[in-house]
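Deliverable D2.4 — example input (structure tokens):
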């Protein structure tokens, strides 16, 4: 996926300039689901919506969203659940979007484990608009 690779390079170069200049907390939010369930609980919906809105409407803005998820490698049921959860998070974020849609990428990592594992979280990371210019802190 050329777009994902280019976005990753953009993200990493933005982080490099941020790490030298300052620290920007709160660019990451974790959504935890009930085991075996793809529906977001009300508290999770509220927390994600508030976090997203504060960044969207704040001084940093949002250039790109990245959703990270884990799934049990080779387990079709685990992968389907992870995809449903990621879709729920993505749909909520889309409904909260601004006039111009924010690009969003999903990265699902298959984990190999000797025992069955459950991965009940989706991590949403934001690349702020200021990373594009390198002027997040100044």
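Example output (designed residues):
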């Amino acid at each position: 996926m050329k777009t994902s690779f280019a976005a990753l390079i953009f993200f990493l170069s933005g982080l490099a300039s941020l790490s030298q200049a300052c620290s920007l907390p709160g660019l990451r939010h974790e959504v935890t689901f009930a085991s075996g369930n793809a529906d977001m609980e009300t508290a999770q919906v509220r927390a994600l919506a508030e976090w997203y809105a504060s960044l969207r409407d704040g001084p940093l803005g949002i250039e790109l969203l990245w959703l990270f998820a884990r799934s049990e490698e080779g387990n079709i049921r685990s992968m389907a659940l992870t995809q449903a959860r990621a879709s729920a998070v993505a749909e909520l974020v889309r409904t909260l979007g601004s006039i111009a849609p924010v690009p969003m990428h999903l990265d699902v990592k298959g984990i190999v484990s000797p025992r069955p594992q459950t991965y009940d979280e989706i991590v949403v990371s934001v690349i702020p608009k200021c990373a594009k210019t390198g002027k997040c802190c100044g």
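The beta strands are 28-32, 64-72, 104-111, 121-127.
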